[in-house]
UniProtKB/TrEMBL annotation:
Pathway: Organic acid metabolism; glycolate biosynthesis; glycolate from 2-phosphoglycolate: step 1/1. GO terms for molecular function: phosphoglycolate phosphatase activity. It comes from the Bacteria. Belongs to the HAD-like hydrolase superfamily. CbbY/CbbZ/Gph/YieH family. It catalyses: 2-phosphoglycolate + H2O = glycolate + phosphate. SUPFAM superfamilies: HAD-like. It is an enzyme of class 3 (hydrolase). Pfam families: HAD_2. InterPro entries: HAD-like_hydrolase_sf, HAD-like_sf, HAD_2, HAD_sf, PGP-like_dom2. Its EC number is 3.1.3.18. GO terms for cellular component: cytosol. This is phosphoglycolate phosphatase. GO terms for biological process: DNA repair.
Length: 214
């Protein structure tokens, strides 16, 4: 069990932590990359780049894109991705996610989203999956997750908070704000990422075994 005070608030990353976003992103990315004349990219490369701001995400996979072209690529990708998310609905979620959130809410634990994704992307995911009602507030569309987390805490005691994510930027944001972190190994958290978190969740319900909740 994580050695911390009783957690009353949990901050969640979204892509790769709550949602298997690559399901919606990969097909559109492959289609656009082919149309733009790029060589094929792997689903693994797309999945591993998840969690970065949209332009940076595209440039990690297609490093020859300058900022202007990456923004254009993102705009086209967003249209395809949103259509796929709305079609897939709750199947976008990793197994056990909605049950975990419902239990947290029933225990009086406040939940928040901190995502580097755009407002449109996060709102689309919340609407399509029906998760919006589980969260006290949604925070997104910022490059620095550490700043986002600091604003969510709003001066409160970090001992009362947890952050659940899947990438090094999530672990770093938690550490920067003195918040305990959990890595979503059921999501896109790689073994290298796992080492950066205070503990690892093999499945969503492990949260209730690893942490004392208020």
């Amino acid at each position: 069990m994580i050695q911390a005070g009783k957690a009353a608030h949990v901050i969640f990353d979204m892509d790769g932590t709550l949602s298997d976003t690559a399901k919606a992103t990969s097909a559109g990315f492959h289609k656009l990359a082919k149309e733009w004349g790029f060589p094929p990219v792997t689903d693994e490369a797309i999945r591993n780049a998840m969690g970065h701001p949209s332009v940076e995400f595209c440039q990690i996979i297609l490093p020859t894109l300058d900022d202007r072209m990456a923004e254009k690529f993102v705009a086209e990708l967003d249209i395809l991705e949103e259509a796929a998310i709305r079609k897939l609905e709750k199947s976008m979620l990793f197994p056990g996610i909605e049950e975990m959130l419902a239990k947290l809410n029933s225990l009086g634990i406040d939940c928040y989203i901190a995502s580097t994704g755009s407002n449109d992307h996060v709102n689309c995911m919340m609407e399509a999956t029906g998760l919006g009602g589980y969260f006290a507030s949604l925070h997104c569309n910022e490059k620095r997750k550490g700043d986002m987390v600091r604003r969510i805490l709003n001066g409160s005691d970090p001992v009362e908070w947890l952050l659940v994510g899947d990438k090094h930027i999530d672990a770093s944001a938690a550490r920067e704000n003195k918040v305990k972190s959990l890595g979503a190994a059921f999501g896109y958290c790689t073994p290298a990422d796992e080492a950066l978190f205070d503990a690892v969740l093999r499945k969503p319900e492990d949260l209730f075994e690893l942490v004392r909740l208020a």
